[in-house]
From TrEMBL:
InterPro entries xrefs: LD-transpeptidase, LD_TPept_cat_dom, Transpep_catalytic_dom
CDD domains on file: YkuD_like
Protein species of origin: Ligilactobacillus animalis
Protein name stated in the entry: L,D-transpeptidase
Cellular component GO terms, alphabetical: extracellular region
Keyword presence, Acetylation: no
Amino acid sequence: MKKASWIHWAVAIILVGLAGYSAVYIHRAEEKNALKVERQAKLDKQEEKRKKELLREQKKHMRTPIAWDQPSETLPYPDVSQAVKSKKLEQKIWLLVSPNKQRVYVRQGPYTLYTMYASIGKNFENVKNYQETPTGDFKLQKERGEEFYDATKGYGAKYWTSFRGYGAYRFESVPFDQAGKVIESQAKMLGQKVTKKHNVKAYGSIRLSVADAKWIMDNLPAKTKVVVEDNDPKHDAWEYMKD
């Protein structure tokens, strides 16, 4: 056999061997990937089941009738003292605000730990940004306090915590008048559907029961994530946070 022919045969054998090895390697990689996908699908299913179980449990313990001076649930508030210090995304405490449902959800990673009744006004006027709660991704700020009164708006509130504008947009209690008496016509809107006739005049802030507002002020530090959904949320905000 000529030397050139021998070299050609050797190269051909090597190439065939490499092709076979590549096919085996690709097959094994595909098998591993399929197993990963299967495991992730199983974990996602378990996570979704756990999320639904938690929400069902909370729904059973939502306070009815709604009381503006009491916690939204009859269950104790969650202990988040250690979780708020965590740097792991799956363990972080954050707030999901739903204007459509008039609820605030205290979440740890993808799980809802506590559900709060809320009052969130809508902009029914032809004035830009009037009576409008901003939507998007925010953080609690260090500005907070036990009470305030705004003479220009004719109401005040207790236990406020800023999430935008250094006090301009806040989590706060239901409103009180200058004499310190609750404004019942607005307080009874807590957790209720908002319409043009029965709107919540909160000027962009998010109202809660007195107890819930105090819990947020006392337990959630500055930089706690806040996600306010728009009027037509397309997906769970947890997926958005992982991006």
